[in-house]
Amino acid sequence: MVKRFGGVAAVNRVSLALEPGRIYGLIGPNGSGKTTLFDCITGVGQCDEGEIWFKGRRIERLKPHQIFHLGLGRTFQVIRVFPELTALENLLVVTTTDYAAARRRAQELLALVKLERLAGEFAGNLSYGQQKLVEFIRVLMTDPEMILLDEPAAGVNRTLLNELLDAVRRLRDQGKTVLLVEHDMKVVMGLCETVFVLDHGEKLAEGAPGVIQADERVIEAYFGR
Amino acid sequence: MVGQVVISGLLAGSLYAMVALGLGLIFGVMRVLNVAHGPMLMLGAYTTFWLFHWLGLSPYLSLLVSMPALFVVGVVLQRLLVRRVVDAPELSSLLLTFGVSIALVNLTQLAFTSDLRSVEYLTGAFILGPFAFSKSRVIACAFAILITAGAFWFLQKTRLGKAIRAVSQSREVAQVCGIDVQRIHMLAFGVASALAAAGGSLVAVMVAIQPEMGQMYTFKSFLVIVLGGAGNYPGALLGGLLLGLVEQLSSLFLTTQVNEAVAYILLVLVLLVRPTGLLKGRSS
Amino acid sequence: MKRAFLVGLAVVLVALALYPMQATGYGVRTMLQLFMWVALAQSWNLISGLTGYVSFGHVAFFGMGAYTAGILIGKLGWAWPAACLAGGVMAMVLAIVIGWPCLRLKGPYFAIAMLGLNEVLRVIVSYYEGLTGGGNGLSLPTLHASVPIYYAMGLVALAVTALAYLIITSRFGLRLMTIREDEVAAEAMGIDTFRHKLYAFLLSAVGPGIVGGLAARDQGYIEPLSVFPLITTITMIVMALFGGKGTIWGPVLGAVVLFAFQELVWARFIYLHQLFFGGIIVAVVLMMPRGILGVLQQKYNLPRTI
């Protein structure tokens, strides 16, 4: 897949193949094209060349909301909760199903991350970590098959982080596919089964965490050229 | 016939380009859609009128007064009001500048009444072969080109100009580079207002001056920005010329009244086809 | 608390319903105008307050309704209630025509497009002189129907407010608000923002359409300047902003307060009046962007049903 901005290819001929029931990591130095890749996959950006397949369908020309309804959800690098809606409302807007069922699910999810008592609080008033959790469970409201997480560990304290990681593992156990972009190497190495490395918009390496860590090219990309 | 129309279009377009550049500066630097841009032009026109009326000052000399004066007005407006909504949702800055524009127009109406004014300065036309061009249009175009060139020289060659371009591209990075973003915002607003004022002074000899005259220019400037791409300064030039051309060309086929709607239809068409502008602009 | 409010509301409604029996013709016509402004401000609220997409050209729907009703009554002899409803329908049609291309645009571009809408409509009206009377305007057969129109306007104002209530308390309304909060995230969360914006836009056009027709009937005469004036848009916006955009009762509050002010103080000084409104817009945006009710809502954590 290729995505260009002006004359620069932010994503240059990157190919990824993902299988269900696994956790994948996407790493690379800043500016390597990770979020752009996410944007293209989720329809927020349009790739210039290439194809994206999901569950047997080509999705690169679909709009974000259509992609979401196919079962692919994402969170954002900069938290995007709806500040003037309550935590509960943030979750409710996502589904179109019967209100009562939606409400139940929302409350389930809130309980999952121990935020039930904040259900009626405006999302904008919550702490950073709490907002992050809300964004996380919001994506789970419709039980998507694949979830893209953009820097889930950023700015999150250790306890919360562990809960988040446990939740991700549980999702994997349910057969979902998770792809996360992350800078925190400990998280990536401890959580992901396969890691992709991007550098300057190109795929540099792919493999198990241990292999990637030892790869010279990866080390060079991160620490010096 | 066509040649005449094309050149007329370019003449008019150069004015649009200059005024639109101002609006583009504000949008590029601050992401603010300045609905009060038209009133700035209007104030420039009135400045020229009164200087001509009281002192007999040539409209073209009055540029030396209207531009700095409105520069100051722009800076003050930005400092006092616009600054507070630069980071707010776009709705806020839109409404704010809308409110300011209403206030300016009505203040002018109170001060000067809405009687039509005009500056009778230059009449007649230059004849060049088969073409005839109204003198005031040609001279206005010449000045517009001069001023716009000056503006570009400023943007490209001077430190402040480069700072403006830097902030247009990325405020955070510019800040990190030590650029005083606040000052740049004020400067951009001031320059933009000066450009609008120049437009006003130049059209003062060509059209009827009244408090609401700016509205049309606001809209057309927006149109030019859309055509040229938001944040794309050279694009504004091309957009302005294009608008001028399209208007003049369509006047061949449509009545003058419907002509006014042409700009609008053009806008909707462009936005439908290329929401980020005809040329590569920065998406907002 | 809620019960008291409902009782109070009922009392007010009954009082308003009985008012024409006691009041002078002038009083009725004044109140009728107030209802009109409530309907207008509330309609503007439906699109701009909820989705954050500022509609600067909303008066276009008012004018559309006025001309539709005017032509139907004046040239085709329709009865005014049907003509006004037709005005509402035509306003919706206009909303689809305008909204379909323009709502795909991001907020600021949409605002630009709406700014020009007024001008275009005015031009179109002048062009089709045969039908619309062009710049000379259109006269309607005289009819003394202030009281029925009073009730009609009141009904529309009530209906639009009820609509606001229904929307704001529903998930549809919540989704509209997400567009205002963060459109990218809304899309990513499966919300078809375009469709939602379009529906809101359509709903916001009906009120002005019908009310435009009623106003035309009431005045008995319409011309481009009277039905497409910028001041109408300005007033709508100020009222909704002042009272609290995005709330249910905000536009009503804003309409009542500013209309009272307008009638009592400013109507005589038209430029001062507009200037004042311009100043209020600036002041509200800077100091009270959520309007009175919005601020109260935030401060006292009031439910959204305010």
Walk me through this protein's architecture.
The complex is a heterotrimer of chains A (225), B (284) and C (306). Chain A contains 9 helices and 10 strands. Chain A has 225 residues and is of the alpha/beta class. Chain A starts with a strand and ends with a helix. The model of chain B is unreliable at 280-284 (pLDDT under 50). In chain B, strands 1-2 form a two-stranded antiparallel ribbon. Chain B is mainly alpha-helical and 284 residues long. Chain C contains 15 helices and 2 strands. The radius of gyration of chain C is 19 Å and the shape is globular. Classes of the chains: A alpha/beta (225), B mainly alpha (284), C mainly alpha (306).
Q: Which features would summarize this protein structure in a list?
A:
A: Rossmann fold; two-stranded antiparallel ribbon; 9 helices; B: 284 residues; mainly alpha; two-stranded antiparallel sheet; 11 helices; disordered C terminus
In short:
Chain A contains 9 helices and 10 strands. Chain A has helices spanning 34-42, 64-70, 87-92, 99-112, 128-140, 158-173, 185-191, 209-214, 216-223; strands spanning 3-5, 8-11, 23-27, 53-54, 57-58, 72-74, 146-150, 177-181, 194-199, 202-207. Chain A starts with a strand and ends with a helix.
Instruction: State the helix count of chain A.
Output: 9
**What does the main sheet of chain C amount to?**
2 strands, antiparallel
From the alpha carbons, calculate the radius of gyration of chain A and give it in angstroms.
18 Å
* Strand order, largest beta sheet of chain C: 1-2
Percent in strands of chain A: 15-25%
Number of DSSP helical runs of chain C: 15
Number of strands of chain A: 10
Average residue pLDDT of chain A: 84
In what order do the strands lie side by side in the largest sheet of chain A? 6-7-8-3-9-10
Separation of termini of chain C?
A: 12 Å
The major β-sheet of chain A equals: 6 strands, mixed
Shape of chain A: globular
Question: What's the multimeric state?
Answer: heterotrimer
CATH top level class name of chain A:
Alpha Beta
| Structural class by helix and strand composition of chain C | mainly alpha
- Relative helix content of chain A: 25-40%
Strand and helix layout:
The complex is a heterotrimer of chains A (225), B (284) and C (306).
Chain A: E1 3-5, E2 8-11, E3 23-27, H1 34-42, E4 53-54, E5 57-58, H2 64-70, E6 72-74, H3 87-92, H4 99-112, H5 128-140, E7 146-150, H6 158-173, E8 177-181, H7 185-191, E9 194-199, E10 202-207, H8 209-214, H9 216-223
Parallel strand pairs in A: 3-8, 3-9, 6-7, 7-8
Antiparallel strand pairs in A: 1-2, 4-5, 9-10
Chain B: H1 2-30, H2 37-55, H3 59-80, H4 90-112, E1 125-128, E2 131-134, H5 135-157, H6 159-169, H7 171-176, H8 181-203, H9 214-228, H10 233-253, H11 256-273
Helix pairs in contact in B: 1-5, 1-6, 1-8, 1-9, 1-10, 2-3, 2-4, 2-8, 2-9, 3-8, 5-6, 5-8, 6-8, 9-10, 9-11, 10-11
Chain C: H1 2-22, H2 25-51, H3 59-74, H4 80-102, H5 107-127, H6 129-132, E1 138-139, H7 146-168, H8 171-181, H9 183-188, H10 193-219, E2 221-222, H11 224-227, H12 230-243, H13 250-266, H14 270-287, H15 291-300
Antiparallel strand pairs in C: 1-2
